[in-house]
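C-alpha cells please, single chain.
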Amino acid sequence: MSSYSRANATFKNYAISLGILVGILLVMSFVVSSRSGEHIPTVEFRPDIEVLRDAADYPVTAPSEDLPEGWIPTSSTLDTTGPVEWSLGFATPQDSHARLIQSDGDPDNVVRSSVQDAEPVGTVMVGDQEWEHLDSDDWGALVLREEDRTLIIAGSTSVDEFAVLAESLKTFPLRDTEDSDEESEADANPDEDTDADTDADADA
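Here you go.
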C-alpha cells in the first residue's frame, strides 16, 4: 500500500514539473512570436530630401540605398523657418535608435542640443572623413563640422552602428551647382543638337 502511494506521489510530482515546464515554454514562445511580429511604424523620407535641397544653402546629405537591411526610418522632421535643419530617425538592427541631424545653425548649439550629456572621447574615421566621437553611459554621437553645416549621428546605439550609417551617407550637390553642371554639359556638346536637327531635316 505504501509502495503504491509513493508511486502515485512520484507520478504526481513528475506531472507538476512537466506542467510547469510546458507553461514556461508556452510563455517563451509567446514572447518570441510577439517580438518577431512587432510592427515598427516607418516613414518615407526621400521626398524630404528634395524639399531640403530647395530650402538649404548647403549640400544635403542623406542615407543612400546601400544602407543595410534592418535600418528602419521612423521619423523625418524638417525645419526651414530659421536655421535649415533636418532630423532623420532610425530603428537599428541592434534594436536601438539612431538619428541623423544636419543643420546650418550655430555648430555649438546644434551639437549641444543633439548629444545630450555625451562627452568627447576621441575620433572615428569613416572613409576619408574624421568624425568627433562623443559618448556617455546611455547616449553617443559622431559629429562632423563643415564650413556650411554640421552633421551629427546620435542615439542610444553603438559607435559601430553610427559608423555604418555614416558610411552609407550620400551628399547631393546644391541646386544651382547641379543646374550649372547640366548647362555646361549641354554647352560642351553643341554638335549633338545640331546633328539631331540635321537628321530631322534629312528625314523630312
